[in-house]
Design a protein that fits this description.
The structure holds 2 protein chains of 2 kinds. Chain A is mainly α. Chain A is 79% helix and 0% strand. Chain A is built from 17 helices and no strands. By secondary structure, chain B is an all-alpha fold. Helices cover 90% and strands 0% of the residues of chain B. The chains are: A mainly alpha, B mainly alpha. Chains A and B meet through α8, α9, α10, α11 and α12 of A and α1 and α3 of B.
Chain lengths: 464, 99
């Protein structure tokens, strides 16, 4: 095994650990809606939410990096360039994440000055990490880009997938520089902040997961490179074509010119079209393989990725993307519902699929199956779908009672929060979050014990 | 747009996209399973999708431009599964010939 692949295992392990912390803080955040006095004076809702959202970003980023470190040496036929620096930075990355999390939880907030920005919190959603940690992330991403590009140069070769990946890493790093706030005008600041959030989530990350899924497909189903690369080019072009200008669908209530709302609504309304193509592609692959594979969990999680992306990003997004609806739905639990489903479908399922591929190789298993992954697959997906359904009901109440009828006043906000449907939605969300958490626990149990249990040995024997 | 119209429009738009997805999946499944029921179900899903599109056009207060987008998207949704399928078969066939 290459050193790069050993590093990949570490990154994926850290990602799954952070997935657990994200889930725990999501559960805590959900409980505040049922009992606002929970942890009063100890941990405010805002901090729990910050930890929940930031660990989401970091676990996915670590999952992507782990996936690339896993596939890169095999793809280019040599050890990853600069692997020593990457190994050192992995520990720096983990330590920095731990320090930032401890500061968030214990220090929580500071004065409105430069010291607080540098040491405690930059105060911008999704990228709250203090400036020193944000600088660290830039360094880590630059080294990561060097690992990929340097390996291609050292190997004197590249592939279609690696070329797309190398091109993608440039905007991925440049866009993150927006995480360093320097604009005092709030409208201008939010305008650019959305470039970071939207163009990471709906552009550069989409390309990144597209590359990872292409590499995983070749390993999982033995799909030929030519087919995978052809579809990567088509799908990346379509996703970028509709996704980039979809940026405007975030520009509500922050003082941007009106034309952005039309541009954003139009382009993001086109986003389900390529996603439908991906779903058809998934059905084609599944049918062509007769659902036969040596790694059933990886295969099913990959299918879940295609379907989850279409439903979470496509269907849930289409509900709210036209400006007439977005005007009321923006920033309610309706968009939270969409966000949960889209992140899960587009990214999380893909990373879990790669995790099972890696486990198969590292544990030297001829065949991966068993009851545990099915339980975790069912509980995680049912929990997630249930949570998004419950959030949707609460979001409807907010859009209807608080926004459309109440006109977004403080009184209307309170009316919305006290509405029985809103409260029931929040109760259902919490209960289903527990189901989701149970699914996570079983996932970890399966990952830790895969290949070490008697039934797994039996399935290997059966496969042989 | 009134509060009720917001919810109705949002729900109809979600249903519209969901039925397009069901149509695509059933159409693709029908290519593998030559049983008529799957093909008929795909047609029924697209029929329902068209009905929802009509409901969006007649009932919702969306502007004319957005309604044109709905019509155009419905046509694209109709074409995407067979086009994707043909492209997939084409690339796979080329691969087999190459091998």
């Amino acid at each position: 095994m290459y050193r790069s692949q050993t590093l990949a295992v570490k990154y994926l392990s850290a990602a799954i650990a952070l997935f657990g912390i994200m889930t725990l803080f999501g559960l805590i955040s959900a409980y505040y809606y049922l009992n606002p006095d929970f942890l009063f004076g100890i941990l405010p809702f805002s901090i729990a939410k910050i930890v929940h959202i930031n660990t989401l970003v970091i676990w996915l980023l670590m999952g992507f990096m782990g996936s690339i470190y896993w596939f890169l040496p095999g793809e280019l036929g040599r050890e990853t360039a600069g692997i020593r620096a990457a190994e050192v930075l992995f520990y720096v990355f983990c330590a920095a994440v731990a320090v930032v999390a401890v500061v968030f939880i214990i220090v929580q907030y500071g004065s409105s000055n430069e010291v607080a920005l540098w040491l405690i919190n930059q105060g911008r959603k999704y990228v709250e990490a203090p400036r020193w940690a944000a600088l660290g992330i830039v360094v880590i991403m630059v080294v990561f880009a060097y690992n990929v590009i340097g390996t291609a140069i050292a190997a004197r070769k590249t592939t279609g997938i690696i070329t797309v990946l190398m091109i993608d890493l440039i905007p991925l790093i440049l866009l993150y520089l927006i995480a360093f706030p320097a604009i005092s005008n709030m409208s201008a600041d939010l305008f650019w902040w959305w470039w970071l959030v939207h163009l990471w989530v709906e552009a550069t990350w989409e390309v990144l997961i597209g590359c990872i899924m292409a590499l995983a497909l070749m390993q999982l189903l033995g799909t030929s490179r030519r087919i995978v690369e052809t579809w990567l080019y088509i799908e990346v072009a379509l996703v970028l074509g509709t996704g980039i200008l979809g940026l405007g669908h975030h520009y509500f209530w922050i003082g941007t010119p009106n034309y952005w709302l039309t541009i954003g609504g139009f382009f993001s309304a086109l986003e389900p079209l390529p996603l439908l193509g991906m779903v058809v592609h998934a059905v084609y692959d599944a049918g062509a393989q007769h659902m036969k594979t040596t790694n059933r969990p990886a295969f099913y999680w990959m299918m879940a990725e295609a379907f989850g992306n279409f439903i979470g990003a496509g269907v849930w997004g289409f509900m709210i993307t036209l400006p007439q609806v977005n005007l009321y739905a923006h920033g309610t639990q309706w968009t939270v519902s969409h966000g949960h489903f889209a992140f899960w479908g587009a990214y999380s399922c893909g990373v879990i699929s790669v995790l099972y591929l890696v486990l198969q190789k590292t544990r030297n298993l001829a065949f991966v199956d068993g009851p545990l992954w099915k339980w975790s697959f069912a509980a995680l997906n049912l929990g997630l779908v249930g949570m998004t359904g419950a959030l949707l009901v609460s979001g409807f109440v907010q859009a209807f009672v608080e926004r459309a009828i109440g006109g977004s006043t403080l009184n209307a906000f309170i009316s919305g929060q006290e509405n029985a449907w809103f409260v029931d939605g929040m109760v259902a969300r919490f209960l289903l979050a527990i189901v989701f958490t149970g699914g996570y626990v079983v996932l970890v149990w399966d990952a830790l014990s895969l290949g070490r249990r008697a039934p797994a040995v039996a399935t290997v024997a059966a496969a042989q | 747009m009134s509060g009720l119209a917001t919810l109705e429009t949002g729900l109809l738009l979600g249903l519209y996209a969901l039925l397009a997805g069901i149509w695509g999946v059933l159409w693709a499944l029908a290519q593998f399973r030559r049983t008529p029921i799957v093909g008929h179900s795909a047609a029924a899903a697209y029929g329902l999708h068209t009905l929802v599109a009509l409901a969006i056009i007649w009932w919702t207060p969306l502007g004319l431009g957005w309604k044109c987008l709905i019509v155009g998207s419905s046509l694209a949704f109709l074409a995407i599964p067979p086009i994707t399928w043909r492209l997939l078969q084409h690339t796979h066939d080329k691969e087999k010939v190459g091998a």
